[in-house]
Amino acid sequence: MQDDLKYTLQDFTNQGTTYAEAIEIVTYAVKIAVAYSANTWSYVQGIIKRWINSSLFTMAEIKEYQEKPKQKYGRYNKKPKEQATDWSQVKAKESLDNSSNLQDRLKKLRDEENVTN
């Protein structure tokens, strides 16, 4: 575990994070694990790995990421359903368009009749 901790700190410091901030980041990951009653180093490593894979190397980025609401699409949190098309509204709009179109065509025909008479 001691070597894992050393390599984890190096992962952050290699990306420009200060050593003190890297320690703060690992401590924050441990606090999150404890809050979820997951008191294992592998759980903490999973949290840190997710941050590294998401290119989060500062406390500010990590806290912003953690505070963002998560969208879950599991069994109980399903994707939003698509809205069904209300065909009565579509048909009503089409009939209004057709009605005005017919009136325009009739007006043109009447105008043509008046010109020829």
Give a description of the structure.
This protein has helices spanning 2-13, 19-35, 41-53, 59-67, 87-116. It is mainly α and 117 residues long. It has two domains: 2-67, Arc Repressor Mutant, subunit A; 86-117. Helix 1 crosses helix 2 (19-35). The longest helix is centred in the C-terminal third of the chain and has 30 residues, at 87-116. The termini are far apart. Residues 73-117 are annotated as: Disordered. Belongs to the DnaB/DnaD family. This is DnaB/C C-terminal domain-containing protein. Residues 22-66 form the DnaB/C C-terminal domain.
Can you give keywords for this protein?
mainly alpha, 5 helices, 69% helix, rod-shaped, 117 residues, DnaB/C_C, single chain, Arc Repressor Mutant, subunit A, 2 domains
Topology, element by element:
Blueprint: H1 2-13, H2 19-35, H3 41-53, H4 59-67, H5 87-116
Organism: Companilactobacillus nantensis DSM 16982
Protein name: DnaB/C C-terminal domain-containing protein
InterPro entries: DnaB/C_C, DnaD-like_sf
